[in-house]
């Protein structure tokens, strides 16, 4: 991350602060010389002195905020990266657990569905049997018997034709 202020800008501010301190000393010397008899001038010079101190305090605060702000920002970024890493690990493990639970539940649902289907088939078959309807299995057996009978009829019909034609 770039710093808020470049080194050359910082050096320029330091130079201005130094010049301001020199000017402040000159003003203080003048104030000292002139203040002997005149309290009104002293109040004006005190006001200028305090104004200058406030200005310098502001510059110092800005400089410190810049240095510490950068460190604080970098520290916050690092903490954010650590937190993101932890939360992504937790999210990944949660997704894994949810996947396992989903697989178990899906298996159980499938087993339950098969059990319900079997029970329903048994009940329907039992009910159909009690009513007197033929079951699917019985119908299939009847179809098979009918097909064999048809084949025998076809064979016998063929024999009868051969016998009649050979007489």
UniProtKB/TrEMBL annotation:
Residues 1-38 are annotated as: Disordered. Residues 1-19 have a biased composition (Basic and acidic residues). Residues 139-166 form a coiled coil. Keywords: Coiled coil. Pfam families: Phasin (PF05597). This is Poly(Hydroxyalcanoate) granule associated protein.
